[in-house]
Amino acid sequence: MKSCYSPIASCTNSVLLLAAGLLVSAAPLAAQTTPAALPGGASSLQETYQDWQVSCGVTQNGKLCAMSQVQTQQNGQRVLAIEVRTAKDNSVGGVLILPFGLKLEDGASLKIDSTSTALAQLKFSTCLPAGCLMPLAFTPANVTTLKGGTTLNVIAIPADAAEPANLTISLKGFAAALDRLVQLNKG
């Protein structure tokens, strides 16, 4: 796994900012509109919390902060990407970008670790050249479980197979990254 995405800094695999822009109209997770202030007067920051990257930058409307994880194959091809944001009402949501070749009509489901109950079935919103987008919204109970979990399993059915495929997202550093994201959004 290789993290390389930042919603502020450029990266060869960055598409999540575009995906997040698509979700702003569909979800209440948007940049803050209060005057932006980052630690030390910085205009942007990028921090790593184990397998999660926290990025924040000052925009004309305030600041835009998110945490993300990008997984790539050894040849550099992206397997999946996830971006998570918090809103003023303390809700947590974001976007998941999955590869082509999945049965779009079947959507995908999320399961935290192997023993938890599957979260609600999720639907794809659209596909772009970078992959297919799936909006995410987590309840407070989901967030608590995510913070204590080890993996977020994404279960989807490939278009050419009947058996589901299981993609895993590491939750190492998720709790610390989310806590930092909340802190950055308050300041």
Strand element count: 10
* Residue share in helix: 10-25%
**CATH class term:** Mainly Beta
For the largest beta sheet, what order do the strands appear in spatially?
1-2-3-4-5-8-7
What is the terminal-to-terminal distance?
31 Å
- In CATH terms, what is the architecture? Sandwich
What about the largest sheet?
A: 7 strands, antiparallel
Write up this protein.
This protein has 187 residues and is an alpha+beta fold. The chain has one domain (16-186): Immunoglobulin-like (Sandwich), CATH 2.60.40. The protein is 17% helix and 37% strand. It has helices spanning 16-24, 140-148, 174-186; strands spanning 44-49, 52-59, 62-72, 78-86, 92-98, 108-112, 126-128, 131-138, 151-156, 165-170. A hairpin with a 2-residue loop joins strand 7 and strand 8. The longest helix has 13 residues, at 174-186. Mean pLDDT is 81; it is low at 1-34.
Key features of this structure:
three-stranded antiparallel beta sheet; alpha+beta; 187 residues; single chain; Immunoglobulin-like; 3 helices; disordered N terminus
